[in-house]
What we know:
Shape of chain A: globular
Oligomer: heterodimer
Number of strands of chain A: 9
CATH architecture of chain B: 3-Layer(aba) Sandwich
Strand content of chain A: 5-15%
Strand order of the largest sheet of chain B: 3-2-4-5-6
CATH architecture of the largest domain in chain A: 3-Layer(aba) Sandwich
Amino acid sequence: MNKHLLSITQLSREDVTRILDTAESFREVGSRVIKKVPALRGRTVVNLFYENSTRTRISFELAAKRLSADVINFSTSGSSVSKGESLKDTALTLEAMGADAIVIRHSSSGAPYTLSKWVEASVLNAGDGTHEHPTQALLDLFTIREHFPAFDGLNVAIAGDVRHSRVARSLTLALTKMGGNVTLVGPPTLIPPEAVGWGAAISHELDDVLPKLDVCYMLRVQRERQRLQFFPSVREYSRLYGLSRPRVDALPDHAIVMHPGPMNRGVEIASDVADLPRAVITDQVTNGIAVRMSLLYLILGGEGARAEAGAGVEAGHA
Amino acid sequence: MSDGGATYLLDAGEVRRSVTRIAHERNKGAAAVVLIGIAARGDDLARRLAAEIERIEGPPAVPVGTLDITFYRDDIGLRAEAPEVHETQIPFDISGRAVVLVDDVLFTGRTIRAALDALVDFGRPQSIQLAVLVDRGHRELPIRPDYVGKNVPTRRDEDVAVLLVETDGEDGVVVREREGKPA
C-alpha cells in the first residue's frame, strides 16, 4: 500500500481490490455489538478540514475511532487558521504533536499533494477543490460491488454537475480502471473540456442513456460553487437532468441509483426516487466507514507509516 | 507444496485420526459447545471437528464460527505491510456457551492471546478451551492447549505448515527451513 492516498491514479487494480476486500472485514466489524477493534491503538489521526463537510469528517472520525486510533478534529473556523496561519505551519504543528495520519479537505486542488511533501505523516485526500475525492470513489465501488459480481463491462452514468465534482473525476477514473464503462451526462456547460481524457463517454441527453444502465449516479448541483450561471434555472435543470420517477422507470429493473450526498431533493433527484429500495444512498454512507477503516488500516498498519527514511515510498519527501 | 526441504510430521491418516481423537476427548456435559476456528485453516479444522463430534454424538449439529484475529495482533506496525485480513463469521451468540477455539499450529501463543481478546468482544462465554492439531512449543505467553493432535519438538527457526485438502489439496503437516518469512 502507498504511504499516502492522494488520487485514484496512484492505485493499481490490485490495490483497489485489496482495499475493497479488506473493507468487507470491516463491514463485519460494523455489524458487531462492539464495533471496535484495537488494530490502530496508539496511532493519532488528524482531520484537517478547510471546508465544511459534516458527513466525510464524521465518517473518517468513526472509522479511526473504530480502529482505536486517537482522533483530533481540526476545523479552520475558530482556530489558528483564522489567525492567518499557513497550511504548512498548521500541518507542521499537528505533526509536532505526533499525528500519524492527516486527513485533509481543502478548497484548493492539489493541497493534499503539497502537504504530503512537507510532513512525515501519511496524508489522505478527503476532497481537494474540483480535483479528486478518492475515498468517496472507493466507497462507491464497494457499494456497486454489493450489487454486481464484477466491474468489467458495467454501464454507469455519472450525471449532473461534472464540472464542479471531484467525485465525478475520482469515480470515473476508478471505474474505468476496474473495467467499467462510464458515461458522463450533463449540460455542455457542466462537462469540463478535460473530461474527454478521463476515459469516459460524454452525453448531454440523460433520457438516451438510461435504458442500458446498471448504475445511475446522480451528482449534487453545487450551488455554493455556482458563481457563474451554468444553467438558466434550477427548474429547467431539474426538468432536463433531474432523476424523476418516469426516468427511474426507464432504467432496467436491476439498475441501482446512487448519490454522494448531501442531496438536493427535487433538484437532481426527485424526493420519492431517493427513497426507493433501488436507491442505495444510505448504504453508501454505511459503507464509507468500512472503506475508510480499510484505508487507514492498510496505510497505518504497516511499518512504512512509522519507520521512515523514504524506503520505497512513492511520492516521498524532498 | 512438499518441496525438497520439507519433512512430513503427520501424514493424511494421522491428521484424520488426530481430529477424531480430539472429538472423542472433548469434555462433554458442560454448556452447549460451539467451535470457533481461527482463520485460515483453523476454521476448516473446526468444521471437520464439528462433523466428527456430530458423527459420534449425533445431532444437534455443533455450531461453527470463523474468527480472524488480524485486528487484535500485537505486531501491527512492526511488519512492513499491514497483515492480510480474513473473514470473521460468528453467526450465533457465544454468551454462556462452552467455546472451543480451534487452530492448526500452536507456537508462541500470541495468536491465541489475540483470539481471546477478540472473542470477548462477541460476548461472555461460559468457558473457552483450546484445540490445536500441532503443538510445536516455544511459547512466549502463559497459554496451554486443552486438546492436542500431536506434540512436535521443533527449532524456533523452522516453519511448521499444516496442509488441508480444503485449502492445499492434501492433508499433512510439514516442517521446513524458514524462507525468511516471519511465522
